[in-house]
Amino acid sequence: MKKATLEELATLVGGKVEGDGTLEITGMASLEEAKEGEISFLAELKSIPRLEKTRASAVVVPSSLPSFPKPLIRTPNPYLAYAKIQAFFSFQTPFPKGIDPRSHIGRDVKIGRDVSIYPFVSIGDGSQIDDRVVLYPGVYLGESVRVGEGTALYPNVVVMDRCIIGKRVIVHAGTIIGSDGFGFARDGFRYVKIPQVGIVQVDDEVEIGANCAVDRAAMGKTWIKRGVKTDNLVQIGHNVTVGEDTIIVAQVGIAGSTKIGNRVALGGQVGVVGHITIGDGVMVGGQSGVAQDVAPGQVISGTLAFPHREWLRAQAVFQKLPEMKRALAALEKKVKTLEEKIGKE
Fold first, then answer.
1. 20 near 6, Cβ under 8 Å?
2. pLDDT level of residue 343 (50, 70, 90 thresholds)
């Protein structure tokens, strides 16, 4: 069982101890479920009544919390502190399991140290598996795939030929990386498939949810940059670039050749058309449809599907609504003045 003093945990999260810093903590739990020896956290001041009932030995709280008769760690961001403390108590160095004989290893495969390759994993010719990689049952790696050190691919993950997965990446069950991009050329009433000959590159410290699809590029690469986090059921089209530390919530679909900036947040069920650019720091509300470039730092939301020509005309009017509202208010004021004048005559 892992243990740490309250002072050690405060140092871990950059917080300040109030009370007995030598108090020994053995785990973390919610305010309602925590018991003696455990630490909990309070993210918002409106939850103070819950704090008063907790049996936790200590609590992580906002810096602004009033005085409270219990050992505390004060921090400007209790939720971030919770994440770090929970990770501390949850992390266990995995014992490498080696290569299960029921797996299939192709020709000229390079395998690093302390790997865990579970039953029914298939690794294609010429692939490279670096140190401390974990491949769970049913993982399929195509030919000439590269998987960086410390990466974990959960059951039934598929990484197609020549794709590159960075270091300390987590890919959850059922996700497919490197499936063909959706590219077809029209020939009369028929469609001719455009060969998808590029790759997918996933940089370090990315986490991809379950049952996602990241399509390989038509040419070049689909690129998921460092620190990106996606929820489950996300579709990323061919030649898309997703910038660093971007977060993508469930059921988002991003069409081909779109460029997503750094630190972007796409809410659930957002749809993004192809061949546009979304700037750094943009936030898009859930179920929104993004159909044009978005400048950095914008917060946008909303969508409505109706005949395209009418939509274009409506968009032209929509941007003028604030001005029209001011004009309408001015007219209302004039009408009221005239009515009052007429009433006095």
1. yes
2. confident
Q: Which of 104, 238, 275, 308 is catalytic?
A: 238
pLDDT tens figures, 219-242: 999 999 999 999 999 999 999 999
**Domain extents in the chain:** 4-90, 98-300, 308-344
Q: What is the pLDDT of residues 205-222, one digit of tens each?
A: 999 999 999 999 999 999
Residue 122 has φ and ψ, to the nearest 5°, of: -125, 125
Mean pLDDT in residue range 117-144: 98
Contact assessment for residue 256 and residue 270, using Cβ atoms and an 8 Å cutoff:
no
Q: What are the E-state strand segments in 235-282?
A: 235-236, 241-242, 247-248, 253-254, 259-260, 265-266, 271-272, 277-278
- Residue 147: closest CA among 218, 202, 196, 186: 202
Question: The domain 4-90 belongs to what CATH superfamily?
Answer: MurE/MurF, N-terminal domain (3.40.1390.10)
Structure tokens at 4: 């740490």
Query: Does the domain spanning 98-300 belong to CATH 2.160.10.10?
Result: yes
Q: Which residues make beta-bridge pairs with 38?
A: 27
Question: 218: phi > 0 → left, psi -120 to 50 → alpha, else beta; which?
Answer: alpha
Please work out, in degrees rounded to the nearest 5, the angle formed at the alpha carbon of residue 101 by the alpha carbons of 100 and 102.
90
Kind of pairing between the strands at 265-266 and 283-284:
parallel
Contact 225, 205 (CB under 8 A): no
The answer to whether 122 and 136 are in contact (CB under 8 A) is: no
Q: How many CB atoms lie within 10 A of CB 104?
A: 12
Q: Report the chain's C-alpha Rg in angstroms.
A: 27
| Active site (annotated) includes residue 275 | no
CA angle 65, 67, 73 (to 5 degrees): 60
**Average confidence score pLDDT of the chain:** 94
Alpha-carbon span 188 to 57, nearest angstrom: 72
* CA atoms 156, 157, 160, 161: torsion sign: negative
